[in-house]
Design brief:
Glycosyltransferase_grp1, Rossmann fold, 13 helices, globular, six-stranded parallel beta sheet, 17% strand, alpha/beta, seven-stranded parallel beta sheet
């Protein structure tokens, strides 16, 4: 039985991205289920009101991070006190979210300390590098990621696309983890007429909106095909390094800036169509949240996000094609009520409770795998010693 879990993440509040939202949901639900959770994250805190605070965790280790101004984000770096923290905590399992630097250290420490680790592949870092002008780093990044995951006890990914990509890099012990969405927070019930009017800039037209990080890897310039039109309004919910450039190139679009929890849910639910242009998503939690609100989604026919949406709950378009995106939005707008209802129906199978219960099953398997590995190693060592003595 899993009693104590150490969660390690390289991205944490006040940053807003899919990894942060996923980790926060996992921690909250594990604590509610009576699991003792410790958190290692940049800026993590137990102090109420702190930007990095999270309710219910037993212990935290706040790690250093470096801000990369070119990418508009921070990256966590290895922490000097991590090994001592693991030894003192003695967790049943270490959950490592989207490992790269701090996560690589966590997987290594867990292996050396004999603690099972579950590494969750959540970010396509190699494609992220390419989209941000660092194409030369794609192959080295993949080699590094594969090296990290090969050392983990168990490796999780949330889509078949991601599992295939990891397998192609020689990563073993792969399992699918079906990620969940907060169906109580993201629901059609929070749709708000006043919020919708604000997103539409005061106009009485359908609102097509994006929600997420405003950054190059999201391919947001494709939205120019929708900007400035009289028959619809374009809204972008979120913030990031590309905001100023996008504000200049998307005439008439509404930019909300960063929104959290209830405010975010109301804004997403008040859209008529959700659109995500980026093809490099391992899942796209924003699309899941929009669909849970009964908002049909338009996404590229590539990456993990394509596994979330079909012609009944939205539409897919040719990656990188503004014309195809425009056609997909038009098709969904013509049938948005039926597709929105189907999007909500599909989402009811993706609740957080079931997702975290599945995750705990993966923890249990990691413990069994680690125990079996230790037994095999001990047996092999005994056999070798006996053979030498007989000789």
């Amino acid at each position: 039985m899993i009693v104590r879990v150490l969660v390690v993440t390289e991205s944490w509040k006040p940053s807003t991205n899919g990894v942060v939202r996923s980790v926060e949901q996992v921690v909250t639900h594990l604590v509610a289920a009576g699991v003792e959770v410790a958190l290692v994250a940049p800026g993590a805190s137990r102090e109420h009101g702190s930007p990095g605070a999270v309710d219910g965790v037993a212990r935290v280790l706040s790690t250093p991070s470096l801000h990369v101004s070119r990418l508009g984000c921070s990256t966590s770096v290895p922490a000097a006190g991590l090994r001592a923290f693991v030894r003192d905590l003695a967790p049943d399992v270490v959950h490592v979210a989207s490992p790269f630097l701090l996560g690589a250290q966590a997987v290594q420490v867990a292996a050396e300390e004999g603690v099972p680790s579950v590494a969750v592949y959540q970010t396509d870092v190699a494609s992220f590098a390419v989209a941000n002008g660092l194409a030369f780093a794609e192959r080295p990044v993949w080699r590094w990621i594969a090296r990290i995951h090969r050392r983990a006890t168990l490796n999780l990914a949330c889509t078949h696309d991601a599992l295939t990509a990891l397998a192609a890099q020689g990563v073993p012990r792969l399992r699918r983890w079906h990620r969940g969405v907060d169906l109580g927070l993201f629901t059609p019930a929070v749709r708000d007429a006043d919020v919708r009017t604000a997103l539409a800039g005061g106009r009485d037209v359908p609102v097509v909106g994006y929600m997420g990080r405003l950054a190059p890897e999201k391919e947001l310039p494709l939205l120019r095909v929708l900007a400035g039109r009289e028959d619809l309004a374009l809204a972008l919910i979120g913030d990031g390094p590309s905001r100023a450039e996008l504000a200049a190139s998307l005439p008439g679009a509404t930019f909300t800036g960063r929104l959290d929890r209830d405010e975010l849910a109301r804004a997403v639910a008040s859209l008529d169509v959700f659109v995500h242009p980026g093809r490099h998503e391992t899942l796209c939690q924003a699309a899941m949240q929009a669909m849970a609100c009964g908002v049909p989604a338009v996404v590229p026919d590539a990456g993990g996000v394509a596994e979330l949406v079909d012609g009944t709950s939205g539409a897919r378009f040719v990656p990188g094609s503004a014309a195809s995106l425009d056609d997909a939005v038009a098709a969904v707008l013509s049938d948005r009520t039926a597709r929105g209802a189907r999007a909500r129906e599909v989402s009811l199978e993706r609740g957080l409770a079931a997702s975290v219960a599945e995750l705990r099953g993966h923890y249990e398997e990691a413990v069994r795998l680690a125990r079996a590995s230790r037994t095999t190693t001990a047996t092999s060592s005994t056999t070798t010693t006996t053979s030498r003595e007989a000789a």
